[in-house]
Amino acid sequence: MKILVTGALGFIGSNITERLVKDGHEVTALDNLHTGSEENVSSVKNKIKIIKASAGDIAKLDERFDAIIHQGVYSSSPMYKDNPHLTAKAIDEWISILEYARKNSTKIVFASSSSLYNGNNPPHKEDMPILVKDYYTEARYAMERMAKLYSDLYGVQSVGLRYFSVYGPHEKSKGKYANLITQFLWEMKAGRQPVILGDGKQTRDFVYVDDVVEANMLALNYKKHDFFNVGTGKSVTITDMVSILAKKLNSPIKPKYEPNRIKNYVQHTLADTSKAASLLGFRAKVSLEDGISRLIKSY
Question: Which of 100, 117, 136, 163 is catalytic?
Answer without folding.
Answer: 136
